[in-house]
Amino acid sequence: MVNHPAVGAMRVALLLGLLMAAWVLWSGQFLPLLLTLGAFSCLLTVYLTRRMGYFDNEVFALRFGVRLFSYWAWLSREVLRSSLEVARVVLDPRLPISPQTIEIKATASHPVDQAILGNSITLTPGTLALDVHRGKIQVHCLTQAGAADLMSGEMDRRVAALRQD
């Protein structure tokens, strides 16, 4: 539960600000009627999420800090490296793929951390997170090397290190 009313109000304001900024940036429309309708839809979304108790759950309290930026840099390098590896495999006339499904265990028990790990796996070309359930992630890998990379646990260790408790 939210410890202080100011924390809940800050989360509501943050979501409202993000929704309104996204709406304006993605629509590119600055007509008064459209701005009014966009603001109304953002306010309605925040009202409904507040009624659903979205802001009362600590699952949505993000506490990652500066570590997140270094993780993004590392993940970007991994995405680039994997992209080049998948391109090499696909362009090879022998098509040396060995598709397989593996299961890895997420070290972090927090649902947000498990979602970050699953999404990071899916962002990396050649791998796809199929299911996340009770800390186990089922992953489809295009190659044996991709499966070995995941089984080494480097990505899992980096995601687990993000949490600042």
What do you see in this structure?
With 165 residues, this protein is mostly helical. The chain is built from 6 helices and 3 strands; from the N terminus they run αααβαββαα. The protein has helices at 5-27, 32-51, 67-91, 111-123, 144-152, 154-160; strands spanning 100-105, 127-133, 136-141. Strands 1-3-2 form a 3-stranded antiparallel sheet. Helix 1 (5-27) runs antiparallel to helix 2 and helix 4 (111-123) runs antiparallel to helix 6. The longest helix has 25 residues, at 67-91.
Concise description?
By secondary structure, the protein is mostly helical. The chain has 6 helices and 3 strands. It has 2 domains: 5-60; 67-160, no CATH class.
Number of strands: 3
Distance between the termini: 16 Å
* Overall 3D form: globular
- Portion of residues in beta strands equals 5-15%
What are the secondary-structure elements, in order, as H or E?
A: HHHEHEEHH
What low-confidence regions span 5 or more consecutive residues with pLDDT below 50? none
Count of helical regions = 6
For the report, how would you describe the main beta sheet?
3 strands, antiparallel
Summed up, the domain count is 2
Q: How much is the average pLDDT?
A: 89
